[in-house]
Amino acid sequence: MKIKAIALDLDGTLLTSDKKISDINKEVLKYLENKGVKIFIVTGRTYISAKPFAQELGIDSSIIAYNGAKVVNYKNDELIFNLPLEEKYSKKIIKMAKEKGFHVNLYQNNKWFVEELDNDETRHYANHTGLTPVKKSFDSFDDYSMTKITIQNMENSKEFNEFCDEIKDVLGNDVYTAKSQSFLFEVLNKNVNKGLVLEKVLKSYGISTEECVAFGDANNDLEMLTTVKYGVAMGNSDIELKRQVNYVTDTNDNNGVAKFLKKYFF
Prior knowledge:
Structural class: alpha/beta
CATH architecture of the largest domain: 3-Layer(aba) Sandwich
CATH topology of the largest domain: Rossmann fold
């Protein structure tokens, strides 16, 4: 097998449970990049949250953030691609979530907005990402075009999952939805997902999807893993994702990325 690109989800994939890149993963990725392979971070995280990991790896490529809604050259912060959720859908989702009492995160201009700072959802997400929340009334935005919206429920309750299904039923194909974590439901522009945007970025580098291996662990990684020739689910992925891809590797805490790359591409 010969590859020209590697696409990496962060949480549950490249990162260990304590949000670190292992030395072995780092060593293998650097080795392959030195051989001319392009390394891409493709994450549901914000650009600001993903950038330190790109810097740690020292990769020479772009960051695909917000599940593909924004692509940035992290070395100079140049915006390459941006496709926000349309205002009418943002307003609808905010209204529906507030009526049901669910926590909402809004993302705009590389900032994370919440209405409540002192709750489990905000504290957990801040610890999870290293981001600082900005408190703002959701009735006070001048522009409601959001990079993405997430609905969050740390209990992953039955009511929460029913509400996620309700959003999908009401908005249908007008938006893209996926769970990036069991407690985090994401809503984006309908023309955005990791697979669609990765393919565009690869093409800009003269690389085909047949020449790319991608790693992921969650529902929001499915399009990416099925777009490329070598889609790899982590050992810690749920069984449904594993069934839909061609390859499965070890877990994120057992250097699954490095083990797969060593096995097939060294």
